[in-house]
Amino acid sequence: MLKLRDARPGRIVIDGVDIDDMSTSQARALFAYAPQDAALTSGTARETLRQGASDADEAALWVALADAGLDARVRGLPGGLDAWLGDAGERLSGGERRRLSLARAYLRPAPWLLLDEPTEGLDGATEAFVVERLRARLARTGQGLIAVTHRPAVLALGDRAVRLDELDPARADARPSHWTLVA
User: Fold this and answer.
1) Kindly report the CA angle at 101 between 66 and 179, in degrees rounded to 5?
2) pLDDT above 60 (res 175)
3) Host domain of residue 120
4) In a domain, 3, yes or no
5) Cβ of 7: how many Cβ atoms within 10 Å?
């Protein structure tokens, strides 16, 4: 979907357009992506978040942090949004880095969120909090969600799940043959 590699023509269609007929920039503009192992650069919370939307105002930054369940933690840092997070966000825990990456994706103006293991490594209470915030965000923004996950709480956000471990690559009829996304 992000055109990291070529799709076979006719396999992924977005708003009636074959992704193979889109430029890489057109396809990527449709998705706000939070990868499983999101790289954070050295800098402040503000600088990291603005990588998702360079023109985001302070209010938008706080909304994204709240939606990711990280606003209280950032408010508690000396300097708040301007707190130095260290090299690759080393002053944050792994779960906090994941949620900062999620907040950065939330800032990117795109009709779809593409989230890879958005709650991996979070304890149950934090995961439930983040999932509830994500549910509220989706209802508020109308964004679509494609989540790659094995976590039941995240799976419950969707109306359709495709279990890749149950697909037999030898059986063409067992594999989803076409994906259609409507923004």
Assistant:
1) 105
2) no
3) 12-181
4) no
5) 17
User: How far lies 135's CA from each of 106, 143, 153, 163, 170, in Å?
Assistant: 13, 10, 11, 21, 36
- On whether residue 64 sits in a domain, the answer given is yes
- Roughly how many angstroms between the first and final C-alpha of the chain, as a whole number? 13
The total number of structural domains that make up the chain: 1
Residue 69 CB: number of other CB atoms within 10 A? 24
Closest of 28, 47, 15 to residue 110, by C-alpha: 28
Q: Distance between alpha carbon 138 and the CA centroid of its chain, in Å?
A: 12
Instruction: Give the span between the Cα atoms of 71 and 147, in whole angstroms.
Output: 23
Contact of 35 with 98, CB cutoff 8 Å: no
Residue 179, phi then psi, degrees to nearest 5: -120, 130
Examine residue 131 and state whether it is found in any structural domain, yes or no.
Answer: yes
Partnered with residue 13 across adjacent β-strands are: 18, 180
Tens-place pLDDT, residues 19-51: 888 888 888 888 898 888 877 888 899 999 999
Question: Is 4 within the bounds of a domain?
Answer: no
Q: Which CATH number does the domain housing residue 126 bear?
A: 3.40.50.300
For the beta sheet containing 31-34, the strands, ordered from the edge strand earlier in sequence to the opposite edge, are 31-34, 112-116, 144-148
For the segment 71-94, the average pLDDT, to the nearest whole number, is: 92
- How many CB atoms sit inside 10 A of residue 80's CB? 17
